[in-house]
Amino acid sequence: METAETKVVMDTTFGQITLKLYNDTPQHRDNFIKLAREGQYNGLLFHRVIKEFMIQGGDVTSKDAPMNKQLGAGDLGYTVPAEFMYPKYFHKKGALCAARTGDEVNPEKASSASQFYIVTGKKYTDAELDQMEKQLESRLKQSIFARLQTENKPKIMELYRSGNKEELAILRDTLIGKTELEAEKRKDETKMPAELREAYKTIGGVPFLDNQYTVYGEVVEGLDIVDAIQDTKTNKQDRPTENIIINSVEVL
């Protein structure tokens, strides 16, 4: 029998948002529950709000932060391992996701301990989603080619040093051929499942964040509150000009 999903109520200065936390992402679920019970979120701000994208909170340095304070880097000094459950869970409107530092310092895509965001996003057309799939395909090819180059690095270096341009060109063409073959075999990875496509067209969301950030819950009540927050006025740092405070997060 499936265990019921944990629900939490986030009380904000704009109203209440009820979220459910997925059992399929247990490390994120348990971490969020622990922080909520410890009162870690009480008094923190939604410090980053971008219309048609998302609302972000959980920076531990945002409590009572003056308007000129740079926010976004405050955390608890540990990370939560990524728990990608795509395509089961994806960046539809209302999805609760973990923020994280960039790939260059965080190739494992590990999540921030405390910072989260709720997706608002926008609705996409078929043409826009097709374009996104093309981008995914070229990104896949780039990563395959980069891996093959690394695997053949000694050979490439040797040909460079000996100035053997012909052999180098042949090797390059071989690697391009291998890239195309592998990309063809893995093309399903770049195709968006039909039900996700439908959701991005009707509910909306942020499809280009899929498989990049962990989605670990969703809004079940209070999406109107999320919309009200995303419509708020912000400054150049995307911080609301009037503080939007998380009063408390209660585990039901």
Helix content: 25-40%
Strand segment tally: 10
The rounded distance between the terminal residues' Cα atoms is 20 Å
Mean pLDDT: 96
Radius of gyration: 22 Å
Overall shape: it is: elongated
Structural class: alpha+beta
Helical stretch tally: 6
Major sheet: order of its strands? Answer: 1-2-9-6-8-4-3-10
Largest sheet: 8 strands, antiparallel, barrel
Helix/strand order: EEHEEEEEEHHHHEHE
Residue share in β-strands? 15-25%
Return residue spans where pLDDT drops below 50 for at least 5 consecutive residues. none
Question: What keyword list fits this structure?
Answer:
two-stranded antiparallel ribbon, 35% helix, 10 strands, 8-stranded antiparallel beta barrel, 252 residues, alpha+beta
Task: Provide structural commentary.
With 252 residues, this protein is an alpha+beta fold. β3 (44-50) and β4 (54-57) form a beta hairpin. The protein contains 6 helices and 10 strands, in the order ββαββββββααααβαβ.
Structure, briefly:
The protein has helices spanning 26-38, 126-151, 153-162, 165-185, 194-202, 223-230, and strands at 6-12, 15-21, 44-50, 54-57, 79-80, 95-98, 111-112, 116-119, 215-221, 245-251. With 252 residues, it is α+β, with helices and mostly antiparallel strands.
